[in-house]
């Protein structure tokens, strides 16, 4: 199967995820600044999740360009990745609606962690399918950001129950770390 079809499907799912997230932003019933002020937690959680989805969309585009073709294994790994991304609207809304309380903030981190883990599974599926000469295998190298991110997510999940604001800062820091597209796979040749 051509990789273009997989990429187009993924683009569509990601667009739907962003649409669902924005629909969670409810319009205030009153035309006052106080009414807008009440929406800040929901808006901030939306912005953070939008950035994360944008990072994954951008890197997914580059990742698919490193793949020579796709197999059934790659397609299932991609669906696994999209499953975790599809939970972003739920955890984003729950965290925002509950003003970054401990459990919603921790669950948000679990979904971030699982999305990161499924991303690694997708990378390995592509490398396994493409074999020893995989452009992705050559491009990844040490993958320091990829190894550091899950550790940061785990620490943020634990901190959610003690210092929520530090957990939230860790989520922001990881997003900032990935904001610039992964140059290793942006142009692997």
Automatic annotation (TrEMBL):
One Pfam family named in its UniProt record: TMEM175
Catalytic function, reaction form: K(+)(in) = K(+)(out)
Chain ranges passing through the membrane: 9-27, 39-58, 70-94, 106-127, 148-180
One cellular component (GO) term of this entry: membrane
Main subcellular location: membrane
Compartments it resides in: Membrane
Topology term for the membrane: Multi-pass membrane protein
Keywords of the record: Ion channel, Ion transport, Membrane, Potassium, Potassium channel, Potassium transport, Transmembrane, Transmembrane helix, Transport
InterPro entries assigned: TMEM175-like (IPR010617)
GO molecular function, one term: potassium channel activity
Record family assignment: Belongs to the TMEM175 family.
PANTHER family: ENDOSOMAL/LYSOSOMAL POTASSIUM CHANNEL TMEM175, ENDOSOMAL_LYSOSOMAL PROTON CHANNEL TMEM175
Protein name (record): DUF1211 domain-containing protein
Taxonomic path: Bacteria, Pseudomonadati, Pseudomonadota, Gammaproteobacteria, Nevskiales
